[in-house]
Specification:
820 residues; alpha+beta; Agglutinin, subunit A; Hepatocyte Growth Factor; 5 domains; six-stranded mixed beta sheet; 18 helices; 25% helix; binds 2-acetamido-2-deoxy-beta-D-glucopyranose
Length: 820
């Protein structure tokens, strides 16, 4: 007995604590046992994704949150992990279920080899091989589930045309194959399919020159993955590796029908969604199923129309909407029984309609009403087309109000499911008359109500109170004059005009910018403003509206109660403001970087801000940073001299290429951001003279300390000294990235999205080289005047130092100085 317990203990001890990475004749997997890859990265064992007692053999990251990467028995769960066992048997790795030991999953080989072993490798590959041999008989990398790990090949067999698919889970609690899959097609494009057939997204073909997929231009910005394509007569495949072994990342064919790329953020211990396609949830084919209505603005994205309910509430609750909606009341379509049509406004119409051309709305309506198998109709006014649906209604999407593409969609419902409203026909004449009277009264009241509502809505919209949907409000000059009490409270005078505080009648605060020097025509101005209005991001100041009356051009923004960053950063001795804590500074830098990355990469056209400085970083009530004044450089015109003139006093942030006169790219913003980041760290102007002789020009001093690996703490704002909360790691990262940003060569500067990644700690960054132009300044040992306002000759000298300097641009900058 004692020896039995001893052996049991011994057994548990051996297999419980020492990390085994192999299933062999000697070791089987059951209960809570797991195997762990040699490097400790991956772990395998039984897991249970939901509340039911369905167990699966799965693989996950041992260290990170338990994210399942691969499942063996995807659609054949076992009920009891204690009696089920994963073991080597009959030349295979097999999973036996419960007391009867029925096989539920197997590697399916025909080999008769006896001494097999299955090893979980440190790349996440489970490999089956003969014990004394290195030949691989079977590997999990050849049978991916929903996750594409580095090293996995998503293949196309060119002889048989068979593809290997990444297939989504059915729902978050059921790993069995769902409806969405990713595969490689013959044209070297990846496509996402619904139910293995309907394609709703494609990466476009692989371009061997640029090494990106044609329809995924954002891959240009990729610096994490090394994608490679292989093709010969028998097979083609893509695979990828990750440049830095510090980055953990995975691609997943998600239950949402989107392919998603996540990277692990160690600081927050969370997966960060890095990229996904299709961008819009409603672009996923049949996402909401039959009769389901998809809307980007609602949460959840799917809902059933009136008179319908989810076909399976259980699936619906698990975010699996594919079963769609069913009628609450079945249609009775015999004579005399009348169905009604429910109008749904602003709909993007469903697929699979029939087209009855050239008919008016009324003919369209009666055509559908008179045919019992017609379930819905819609009329396109512009084309004078009538569309009717007779079967399922799929991919119905609710668009935002005020869009131009929406249509009214009329859906047939049993009369009893139609919400109140005037009733239809009745047997009794009296009732009919009564109904008619009540009905017309109802109609009159309804019309009045609608008119009032529309008027109120318009008014509110004009007053900018209700445009959270992104539409811009057009204000009259008088309205803004009233709102700002005749421009009495000036908030500041930026490069493009003065800013005033105001309040709308709904008592929301606004900031009104009176633009100066706009020479654009009315139409062009409006186009630009509307473009700016569509750019929305949590780190960008939101444009609410504008006014354009002749020369009077004004922009209306959200008011930011905490003002601009400079007022918190550069404090006068006698100012009684609280010093910004390090954490907050870091968050401000990160938020600003995110806002800029959005401007550079995510908008339809890359928007170069051209004027990044602390004055243009505003802080909301939570001290969340918002970049202001974006898009204005374009509004004023890309003309070089013009921009320089409008940016008097901000040249401490200007990249060398501004002076040298070459074309300006987004990297100019990166330079300015780097300069500003140094100021955020040091809490003082870069150009400010210091009593300390060594610190003539702060950026050069910072670069010296960094590149010589000196005491990084010296760069920190003295007011944060002795402050334990300063994270030296973060300080180092911020200084390094700032120094990379201010490199002379544009190509040496990171992109804004790389800056974001570095600040997030996702991307490691090396020590930067010393920026050359700053080096030159230190060497010449003259007073440091590079890009400062102080003297015209110095600006001239520095521009001559630039090899590409164009005489016209340097003249212009000299002119500015003399006029200033
Ligand atoms: C399995 O056990 C036998 C003897 O019990 C031993 O010789 C062999 O090395 C073991 N194999 C593994 C893979 O541990
Ligand atoms: C499996 O065994 C563990 C202990 O070894 C026990 O706690 C658990 O309840 C068992 N599970 C089932 C389903 O019997
Ligand atoms: C295994 O053998 C069976 C019949 O013996 C055959 O039908 C099957 O295709 C073979 N499988 C493989 C993977 O070779
Ligand atoms: C592996 O061992 C088997 C017998 O156990 C033997 O037949 C085979 O030749 C060995 N293979 C290698 C590569 O040594
Ligand atoms: C998916 O396609 C299969 C045939 O390929 C079909 O039997 C099945 O009903 C389809 N699923 C749905 C949800 O339509
Ligand atoms: C990218 O991957 C390819 C193929 O795996 C390899 O040859 C190449 O060296 C890799 N490039 C880098 C920069 O790691
Ligand atoms: C194609 O490449 C694979 C290995 O990647 C190889 O096994 C196969 O023989 C090659 N086919 C041809 C026709 O060269
Ligand atoms: C990452 O790679 C570097 C060099 O390539 C190596 O020294 C280091 O050990 C690796 N780290 C891990 C966790 O594999
Ligand atoms: C009713 O609509 C169905 C489907 O659109 C069509 O096939 C059928 O011919 C129509 N019946 C009549 C009487 O128009």
């Amino acid at each position: 007995m004692v020896s039995f317990f001893f052996t049991l203990f011994f057994f548990l001890f051996i297999h419980g604590s020492s990390a085994v990475d192999t299933i062999s004749a000697n070791f089987t997997l059951s209960g809570d046992q797991t195997i762990t890859s040699a490097g400790g990265t991956f772990e395998m064992g039984f897991f249970k994704p939901g509340p039911s007692s369905n167990f699966y053999i799965g693989m996950w990251y041992k260290q990170l949150s338990k994210t399942i990467l691969w499942v063996a028995n995807r659609d054949k769960p076992v009920n009891d992990k204690n009696t089920s066992v994963l073991k080597i048997s009959n030349g295979n790795l097999i999973l036996l279920d419960g007391k009867n030991q029925t096989p539920v999953w197997s590697t399916g080989l025909n080999s008769s080899v006896s001494s097999l072993k299955a090893v979980l490798q440190d790349d996440g590959n489970l490999v089956l091989r003969v014990s004394n041999d290195s030949n691989v008989l079977w590997q999990s990398f050849d049978h991916p589930g929903n996750t594409w790990l580095p090293g996995v090949k998503i293949r196309l067999d060119r002889l048989t045309g068979k593809t290997q698919r990444l297939i989504s889970w059915k729902n978050p609690e059921d790993p069995s194959p769902g409806l969405f899959s990713l595969e490689l097609d013959k044209s070297t494009a990846y496509k996402i399919l619904w139910n293995g057939s309907n394609e709703y997204w494609s990466s476009g073909p692989w371009n061997p020159q640029t090494q990106i997929f044609d329809s995924v231009p954002e891959m240009r910005l990729n610096y994490i993955y090394n994608f490679s394509f292989f093709s010969n007569a028998t097979e083609s495949y893509f695979t990828y590796s990750i440049y830095s072994n510090l980055t953990v990342s995975r691609f997943v064919m998600d239950v949402s029908g989107q392919i998603k790329q996540f990277t692990w953020i160690d600081n927050t211990k969370q997966w960060n969604l890095f990229w996904s396609q299709p961008r819009q949830q409603c672009q996923v084919y049949r996402y909401c199923g039959s009769f389901g209505i998809c809307s980007e603005k609602s949460q959840p994205f799917c809902r059933c129309p009136q008179g319908f309910r989810p076909k399976s509430q259980k699936d619906w609750d698990l975010n699996d909407y594919s079963a769609g909606c069913v009628r609450r009341t079945e249609l009775q379509c015999s004579n005399g029984d009348i169905n009604k049509f429910l109008p749904l406004l602003d709909m993007k119409l469903a697929d699979e309609s029939e087209l009855l051309t050239r008919t008016s709305l009324s003919i369209c309506a009666s055509a559908c009403q008179g045919n019992c198998s017609c379930v819905a109709y819609a009329h396109n006014e512009g084309l004078n087309q009538c569309l009717v649906w007779s079967k399922d209604v799929l991919n119905l999407q609710k668009l935002e109000e005020d869009n131009n593409e929406g249509n009214t969609f009329y859906l047939r419902l049993a009369a009893s499911d139609i919400p109140k409203g005037p009733s239809g026909n009745s047997k009794s004449n009296k009732a009919m008359i009564f109904g008619a009277v009540i009905g017309s009264l109802g109609v009159i009241v309804l019309v009045l109500l609608v008119v009032i509502l529309v008027l109120r809505y318009r008014r509110r919209k004009r007053m900018g109170g209700e445009n959270s949907d992104g539409t811009l409000a057009a204000f009259s000059y008088r309205e803004l004059q009233n709102a700002t009490k005749n421009f009495s409270e000036k908030l500041g005078g930026g490069g493009f005009g003065s800013v005033f505080k105001g309040a709308l009648p709904d008592s929301s605060d606004i900031a009104v910018k009176r633009l100066e020097g706009i020479s654009q025509g009315e139409k062009q101005f409006r186009t630009e403003v509307v473009t700016i209005g569509t750019i929305q991001h949590v780190n960008l100041v939101r444009l609410r509206g504008f006014c354009s009356e002749g020369n009077k051009k004004l922009l209306v923004y959200d008011y930011m109660p905490n003002g601009s960053l400079d007022s918190h950063l550069f404090l006068n001795q006698n100012e009684e403001k609280i010093v910004l804590e390090w954490k907050l500074r870091y968050q401000i830098a990160l938020g600003t970087a995110r806002g800029l990355a959005y401007l550079h990469d995510e908008c339809r056209d890359c928007i170069i801000h051209c004027d990044i400085k602390p004055e243009n970083i505003l802080l909301d009530s939570q001290f969340c940073p918002k970049v202001a004044d974006f898009g204005l450089a374009k509004l004023v015109g890309r003309d070089f001299s013009r921009v320089l003139t409008t940016m008097r006093g901000t040249r401490g942030y200007l990249a060398p290429e501004w002076i040298s006169g070459v074309a300006i790219t987004a990297k100019a913003d990166v330079y300015s951001f780097g300069m500003m980041l140094l100021e955020i760290v040091s809490g003082r102007r870069n150009t400010e003279q210091s009593e300390n002789e060594k610190v003539k020009f702060f950026p050069s001093w910072a670069a010296t300390i960094l590149t010589k690996d000196g005491n990084i703490r010296l760069l920190l704002d003295p007011r944060l000294e002795g402050n334990d909360v300063v994270d030296i790691e973060e300080l180092m990262r911020a200084c390094k990235v700032a120094c990379w940003c201010i490199q002379d060569e544009e190509s040496h500067r990171p992109t804004m999205s790389q800056v974001v990644q570095i600040l997030e700690g996702v991307l490691e960054v090396n020590l930067p080289p010393f920026p050359r132009s700053i080096q030159a300044l230190v060497d010449t040992n003259e007073d440091v005047v590079f890009f400062t306002e102080s003297s015209s000759s110095s600006s001239h000298t520095s521009s001559q130092k630039q090899s590409h300097s164009s005489s016209s641009s340097s003249k212009k900058s000299t002119n500015n100085n003399s006029s200033a």
